[in-house]
Design brief:
Helix 4 (774-845) runs parallel beside helix 6 (902-922) and helix 6 (902-922) packs across helix 7. Among the domains are: 209-336, Methylamine Dehydrogenase, Chain H (7 Propeller); 654-769, Immunoglobulins (Immunoglobulin-like); 773-845, no CATH class; 849-1087, Phosphatase 2c, domain 1. A hairpin with a 4-residue loop joins strand 27 and strand 28 (330-333). It is built from 9 helices and 78 strands. The strands form 20 sheets. It has a 5-stranded antiparallel beta sheet, with helices on one face. Strands 68-69-70-71-74 form a 5-stranded antiparallel beta sheet, sandwiched between helices. It is α+β, with helices and mostly antiparallel strands.
Length: 1088
């Protein structure tokens, strides 16, 4: 038998290079092939380096580093010793070692160095490379034993050799490990197991394990588990587990073979993962997993593996399982947490509803293929039974399912009403039987075993008495299109519609919409947590929470939108426990960990990139079953998710700045920088000229779990002060950089939004042009100082010469200036005297205090011109009209604001007073509106106003009252200026006409307002100067509102005190902001 196996060994080597057929992808595997950039489809070795890259060794295509998206190929053209790469290893110094069929290659990130038998190796055929705890490099070869490299200086290797000549039991060494006691274990193809220890003198002692203890001699692979025990894979006898105590009393404690868990006995590779599982790569029956419960799971072409010939298996730092196949490429295993069922099993890909009737029985509603009953055999394989027209199910589009307390199945159909199914017969209920609408969206069995039916036309409740219907027309349902129904633990029924949500409790119906905080009313799904809070999924808006503890106010608040959930269209929600919420959308689903304060502690996204092939969830097609699984009905089949099996590590990506381009071109930076960093050809201590100021940074964040969802944030210190928003692109361009010192910073995040704690950085300098260097600037300053000094001396001499001449000119000019100054001062004095004289004239034409006091008994006048003369004026007169039997007295009072202030305003005010005297005192008019009409006509005529563009439109705003003392009537008319009346602590404003005393677009007659007055009333006439005065703490206008409040606060005071208060208030107001008076001010108060 031993000779026969020797003959088989060349065939064994030949096997590794034979072609194999590639199968397609399915279920929980992501397959990478030549089309994805893999250099060759036969993958013999896998390794992840300290930089996060997955290295792949192939049968004939060399090696490739993989960042999750792109493969970078290395072969003989790049420097590898051979294209058949059996093993890849990284030592403690970060140097990569490659074992090929043509020798050993060492790669330090700069260049490759190759070693062969010419350099002291015993064989060029290298199976395995390993570094022990003492820093020795072990190189396992075919037919020539083991080479031990004690000095890793690539220029001067010191090599020890172990072969059958110095104690090794076999020269074909396939695998090597170090146990927990620093012993080296070697598995040989003909000589079984060898245990090697290093002596004090650094020589090695080989202890071949007796066949009496370990009877297996043809060993191919090894794997050390978490307990420190070692699995061995054999050529034709399966695998066995050996205990590894500190003494060499080894014994077999477990086996796996054709009779115990395995489908065959040839084991090419063994890997023990961090969860305690052991993975076996077999020759013809795929990948086999042995879990901690000693249960075997087979993964072969039936489960979606592209080839049953597995050559290597490996777990990366995020707990993903990778394996290489013969002819099928590289595979990543997502895990058991997803199981997918499509039209191959269910006859339909579009799944609308899921229900569970027993531990092993599930019911599935499909689109167009009827009802499916799914059970499972002892091996977990589904057993399918379809129900269609032939079984009495007339509408094959099943939108919802419910199971009552008697075990009866209820089905909702798209257009055919509802069905009950007792296991043998279907019974149909439609509108003819009392159902409110045949278009049924959802079903729910409540705690009283009543069936709630949500339709496009309202809500039906069905029990032994029949149907009870609720709609918009009947009982005022908030919206007829019912989408979801559920029940709280206290018996409250919650109904979601396209117009909000409805609560049914104690025979009362309560609506919830915008008033309670529900900003989007299209409610598609509802779930209730263990604290009786209601979670709502809305279409187009996101996820909401109704907090039952909020008794008043906004009881509904938004918890997440598309920024958190990836989509704002929520189709299904479910809790698998108190803190784990599942949210199904049109772009996958989210698994959300929630704390006791309803904050999201962690969000995990699932879509096609990490195994959720259905992507688009259907409305309320979600089920948490009795086993803790969560089922999703999607547009591409049915998916079962098992949360307990999802054990991915949530670690931030490994982030690298991998390239730097100048003006979009790749550059050999070795000619520009002091040194080049290994692996990424980045220059260190880079200094660029001011012309080379256009840079492109290339970067990578390596997260092999879901590389498509890696995001980046970056910042260039010296240009930017804040981080960029998260982006998916892995390059950024900076152009037009000015001279200075810069630091580029980079962060990346994984699919769950976990960012690096510390950024990757790259420092560089852009030097200024020579004329902006310190020495050029210093020299330039020195030259400027000399020039300035010389110029100063020249100027001093010239100034002395000019001084004498200037003094003469100054004397002459001074005499002229003094003369002109005297002339200007004389003219100014004359103008000022004229204005003061005009002021006396203006005051002379205004009614005197004595006259006003004779006609108005209790009044005040606050008159504050901005300049010496004023554009505001007040006017008052008394008119006695003779009637047949009596004399009727009218008191006319007016406050006017003329166009402009100062001298122009004064001229207009004098014109206004003159016309008022003529109209009232001479012509005897007393009706207020007629007075203003005639005053307007006189102004237009006097100023020759025609209304044409560029001609005069000067005039005035005015408020005028005519007091009929006999009938106690105030006639009021106004042009823009209103009248204020205070009566019984209430202020009443009488509005003026919106047209001035001048030509205007509107030339209607002014309105007459008759206002009865009574004793104690006070009226106020005023121009806009008071309310428009700037001041106060913020330098704003006083405003009419504050003016009214002021009047209400002082009207009870005597009129002279009101005058003082108004004057003091406006002075304090403008002084607070140090503002000058900006307009003429006139206020009259009159008390009856």
């Amino acid at each position: 038998m031993k000779n026969a196996l020797k003959i088989c060994f060349p065939a064994l080597i030949l096997f590794l290079v034979l072609p194999a057929k590639l199968s397609g992808q399915q279920n929980n595997f992501r397959i990478y092939s030549i089309e994805d950039g893999l250099p060759q489809s036969e993958v013999m070795s896998l390794y992840q380096d300290s930089r996060g890259y997955l290295w792949v060794g192939t049968m004939s295509g060399g090696a490739a580093s993989f960042d999750g998206v792109h493969f970078t190929v290395f072969n003989k053209k790049n420097g590898l010793s051979g294209n058949k790469v059996y093993c890849i290893f990284e030592d403690k110094k970060g140097i990569l070692w490659f074992g090929t069929d043509e020798g050993l290659t060492v790669y330090d990130g700069y260049k490759f160095k190759n070693y062969s038998v010419k350099d002291g190796l015993t064989s060029n055929f290298i199976y395995k490379i390993f570094e022990d705890s003492k820093g020795n490099i072990w190189v396992c070869t075919a037919q020539k034993g083991v080479n031990i490299i004690k000095n890793q200086n690539r220029k001067n290797f010191k090599i020890d050799t172990l072969t059958i000549n110095n104690g090794l039991s076999g020269n074909i060494v396939f695998d090597i490990i170090e146990d927990n006691f620093s012993r080296i274990w070697l598995c040989t193809f003909e000589g079984g197991l060898n245990v090697v220890t290093e002596k004090i003198n650094h020589s090695f002692y080989v202890n071949p394990v007796s066949p009496m203890i370990i009877p297996y001699q043809y060993l191919l692979s090894m794997g050390k588990n978490k307990k420190g025990n070692v699995w061995f894979g054999t050529f034709n006898q399966g695998a066995f587990l050996v205990s590894c105590p500190d003494t060499e009393t080894f014994k077999i404690i477990n086996t796996a073979n054709l009779h115990h868990g395995l489908a065959e006995n040839k084991i090419w590779d063994i890997y023990c993962d961090e969860e305690g599982n052991t993975w076996f790569a077999t020759d013809k029956t795929g990948l086999i997993r042995l879990d901690v419960n000693n249960h075997f799971t087979h993964f072969s072409e039936k489960q979606g593996v592209p080839s049953n010939q597995i050559l290597c298996v490996f777990q990366d730092n995020e707990a993903n399982i990778w394996f290489g196949t013969k002819g099928g490429g590289l595979c990543k295993y997502y895990g058991d947490y997803f199981a997918n069922y499509t039209d191959r099993e269910l006859q339909s890909d579009n799944i609308y509803a899921i229900a569970q009737s027993s531990l092993n029985t599930y019911w599935i509603g499909t689109s167009g293929k009827g009802l499916v009953k799914m059970t499972f055999d002892d091996s977990g394989n589904p057993i399918i039974k379809n129900y269609t027209e032939k079984d009495g199910l007339l509408d094959l589009c099943i939108t919802s399912l419910a199971i009552d307390k008697k075990g009866q199945i209820w089905l909702a159909s798209q257009t055919g009403g509802i069905y009950s199914f007792n296991g043998k017969y279907f019974t149909n209920y439609t509108m003819e039987d009392g159902l409110i609408d045949n278009r049924v969206n959802c079903l729910f069995i409540d705690s009283k075993n009543r069936l709630w039916i949500g339709t496009e036309g309202g809500l039906s409740i069905f029990d032994e008495k029949g149907f009870f219907n609720i709609s918009e027309d009947k009982y005022k349902l908030i919206n007829n299109e019912v989408q979801v129904i559920t029940e709280a633990p206290d018996g409250t029924i919650w109904v979601g519609t396209l117009g909000g949500i409805v609560k049914f409790k104690n025979n009362q119906m309560t609506d919830f919409d915008e008033k309670e905080g529900l900003t989007e009313k299209q409610i598609k799904t509802i779930v209730i947590d263990n604290r009786r809070n209601v979670w709502l999924g809305a279409f187009g808006s996101g996820l909401y929470l109704y907090d039952s503890s909020v008794k008043n106010g906004k009881s509904i608040r938004k918890m997440a939108d598309d920024k958190i959930l990836g989509s704002s269209n929520i189709y299904s929600v479910s809790f698998s426990n108190d803190s784990l919420l599942f949210v199904g959308t049109d772009k996958g689903f989210k698994m959300i960990v929630i704390d006791k304060n309803y904050k999201f502690k962690r969000i995990v996204n699932f879509d096609k990139t990490n195994g959720f092939i259905g992507i688009e969830n259907n409305l309320n097609a979600i089920l948490k079953d009795s086993h803790g699984n969560v089922w999703f009905g999607t547009a591409k089949g049915l998916t079962r998710f098992t949360p307990s099996l999802y054990k991915r590590k949530n670690i931030a990506p490994t982030t690298h700045i991998v390239g730097l381009k100048l003006f979009f071109e790749s550059i050999d930076w070795s000619a520009t920088a002091d040194t080049i960093s290994p692996w990424f050809n980045l220059p260190q201590n880079l200094e660029l000229s001011y012309k080379n100021n256009h840079l492109t940074f290339l970067f990578e964040g390596i997260s092999l779990t879901n590389p498509q969802k890696v995001k980046y944030r970056y910042m260039l210190e010296g240009v930017e002060e804040t981080w960029s928003p998260p982006v998916n692109t892995n390059e950024v361009v900076y152009s037009g950089l000015v001279p200075g010192n810069y630091t580029f910073k980079l962060l990346s995040a994984n699919e769950n939004g976990l960012w690096n704690k510390h950024p990757q950085t790259f420092n560089f300098v852009i030097n200024p042009p020579w004329y902006l260097t310190w020495w050029a600037i210093t020299g330039g300053i020195f030259v400027i100082i000399i020039l300035v000094f010389s110029y100063i001396k020249y100027r001093e001499a010239k100034l002395k010469r000019d001084k004498v001449l200037l003094e003469k000119i100054v004397k002459e000019r001074t005499a002229e200036v003094v003369k002109q100054k005297e002339i200007v001062e004389l003219q100014k004095q004359e103008i000022t005297d004229s204005i003061h004289y005009a002021s006396r004239i203006q005051r002379a034409i205004l009614p005197t205090d004595r006259y006003i006091s004779s006609i108005l008994k209790d009044y005040f006048i606050l008159y504050k011109p901005k300049d010496i003369v004023s554009g505001d004026f007040y006017w008052a007169t008394k008119v006695d009209t003779q009637h047949a039997t009596s004399i009727q007295t009218h008191l006319i009072v007016a406050v006017a604001d003329c166009t402009g202030h100062g001298v122009p305003g004064a001229f207009m005010s004098m014109l206004g007073v003159s016309f008022l005297n003529e109209i009232v005192n001479e012509k005897g008019l007393t009706q207020s509106n007629k007075i203003l009409n005639l005053l307007r006509n006189n102004i237009i005529s006097a100023l020759q106003q025609q209304g044409a563009y560029g001609t005069s439109k000067d005039g005035m705003d005015i408020s005028l009252i005519s007091i009929d003392t006999k009938n106690n009537i105030i006639q009021y008319s106004g042009a823009y200026n209103s009248l204020l009346l205070i009566r019984n602590n209430e202020l009443i404003e009488f509005k003026a006409d919106k047209m001035p005393i001048a030509i205007y677009d509107i030339m209607n007659s002014f309105n007459l307002q008759n206002i009865p007055y009574q004793t104690g009333d006070i009226v106020y006439l005023f121009s806009d100067g008071y309310v428009d005065q700037f001041g106060g703490p913020k330098s704003k206008k006083f405003m009419i509102k504050q003016f009214k409040s002021l009047l209400l606060s002082i009207f009870n005071l005597p009129m002279n005190e009101q005058h003082e208060t108004l004057n003091k208030t406006i002075e304090d107001w403008k002084n607070q902001a140090n503002e000058p008076q900006n307009d003429d001010i006139c206020v009259i108060g009159l008390k009856f």
